[in-house]
What does this fold into?
Amino acid sequence: MDAVVETPTVMFLVGTVICALSTLICWVMTVLRSHPADSSIISLAAIELYLIVYGIYAGIRQAMGAAILGEAWEFWGYIITALLLPVGVFIWAMVDKTRWSNLVMSFVGLVVFVMVYRLEVIWWGSAL
Amino acid sequence: MGKRAVSSDNGRSTPRNRGVGMLIITAYGIFAVSAFARAFYQITPFPQQDKVQFADAPLALSLSGFAAAVYILAALALARTTTVAWKVALVAVLIEMVGVIGVGAWTLMQPELFEVATVWGGFGRDYGYIPLVLPFVGLFWLLKHRSAH
It folds into this structure.
């Protein structure tokens, strides 16, 4: 039992699960609630928190001299854009508080998943 | 994502930028932000060895910037309900439609010109073909919600 799962894989899998759960919760809440559901909003907060942790982890590693495979500018551009996304979509979803707010918020999980995938490719060369 | 029988919508009285319209605007907004970020990164001359500089691929990078501008314009115009905004949105969506189909076909015919990816390259293949679907959805939505005149 000494098969050590590498950290990048863990980071990517955690991100995938959080994004998938968030999107799923938002879809279910679109059906169940005619207003923005607390669980949808919390799931966006979870994605934001994950991205903050991801950014801190990447920042510490790179500050300690660990190089990434791709371009640092591109990498941090992706992180900053991804960090803005849950906040921006949340604000937009609150403009009109209907069931569709939940569906609007479900976009975050889908897009952040793709962005984390891209980040992993820039960082390590592959996502898994 | 099917529409359920239970719906709190007011049917036809829902404005163009509310309800389902918010989804379309969100999609345009996400593309506006990501296309802008990408074009900004591509066009800004960050001093890196591997990065393709503007002079190396002026066509692909110009198209990246142009696509970003169109998405930003479309997102803003779709979010507003004035007659002018409706017209602006229609023009932006049509430009987008011509752009994604035209650039898509162009990348197939002359792939050597497009070694750097643009949003509309290969009909938006890199973005799950969403750039190809989006203008049709946008056009449908605009025609469904014609302005008074």
Summary: The helical segments of chain A are 7-32, 38-63, 72-93, 100-124. The mean pLDDT of chain A is 91. The two ends of chain A are 20 Å apart (CA to CA). DSSP finds four helices and no strands in chain A.
